Amino acid sequence: MAPVLTSPLVSTQWLADHLGADELVVLDASVHTSGVGLGTTWHAAGDSYEQHGHVPGARYADLLHDFSAPDSDLPFTRPGAERFEQAARALGITNTSTVVVYDDSVGEWSARLWWIFRSFGFDDVAVLDGGFVKWRDEGRPVRVGALTTRADDSDTQHAFLAGEERPLWADRDRVERAVDGTQPAALVLAADETVLGDGHAPVVPGTTPIALRRIVDQDSNTLRRPAALADAFAPVFDADEIVTYCGVGSAACVDALALTVLGHDRVQVYDGSLADWWRREPELAS
Question: Quick one: which of 120, 186, 191, 275 could link to 236 by a disulfide (CB 3.0–4.6 Å)?
Fold first, then answer.
């Protein structure tokens, strides 16, 4: 029987207690970056997963390729249902699995994969609070090398099927309607402007910046306690709808995760974020 989740987050102790349980699938969703702003490049971290270690039994989930749309002109555009199903099946996930996702950074990549799963109607998924950083720093077991077993994608009996996509994503049109007031929403920038580079175009008008340093505790690498999160989101929390964004739509998912922890159920992530907003001359952003 798969472990039961009671929160969008699980602690390192919870994972240690349940590691090896039937139908528990642990995913390392790490992505590595270099550069800032429009000069940022992204790299799949599968080599690091193999060479520097991972949680025992964890499988590497390639967020950059397998869980993104291959034909998009933007990085990290969410996959369609068929591609999502294929990627999940290849990792041994079924509709009765419990999935725990982590990364080796501050949680933006695991939060994005968590958001993708939820957007396709799969709720038995959680983010490891503190990620691999906390797991490793606590001296918990780490395995090096590739996971030798792969799922048999031809096993139709245990095939993974995506649900109907939920309205958890915002596009440019939705953001413009928030800006001009025709469909109000609080706009939250999750990226610290220092990572956006110098001389960049304006961010979305009317934005409230709530950067990850206010959401993630720098000492523990975990989300801050609910009282601190509530204080950080106080300027926008009473909004009927909140749209989070960042550079490409990854850090925005950490803010979305924190808002979900606080109980706000009308949150969308702007897929493509500033990479999309800046690629056209936005009349509303000038």
Answer: 186
What are the angstrom distances between the C-alpha of 172 and each of 119, 228, 269, 270? 18, 30, 11, 7
Res 149: pLDDT: 52
pLDDT band, residue 284 (cuts 50/70/90): very low
Residue 192 has pLDDT above 70, yes or no: yes
**Inter-residue contact 98 to 2 (CB < 8 Å):** yes
Residue 13, CA distances (Å) to 123, 137, 214, 254 in order = 21, 13, 24, 21
Residue 263 makes CB contacts below 8 A (sequence gap 6+) with none
Contact 283, 175 (CB under 8 A): no
Query: How far apart, in whole angstroms, are the C-alpha atoms of residue 228 and residue 209?
Result: 16
User: How far, in Å, CA of 77 to CA of 29, rounded?
Assistant: 15
The per-residue pLDDT for 194 is: 76
- Classify residue 250 by burial, with Cβ atoms within 10 Å: 0-12, 13-18, 19+: buried
Residue that has been written with the tokens 């000069």 in this structure: 39
Q: Give the up-direction half-sphere exposure of residue 237: CA atoms within 13 A in the CB hemisphere.
A: 15
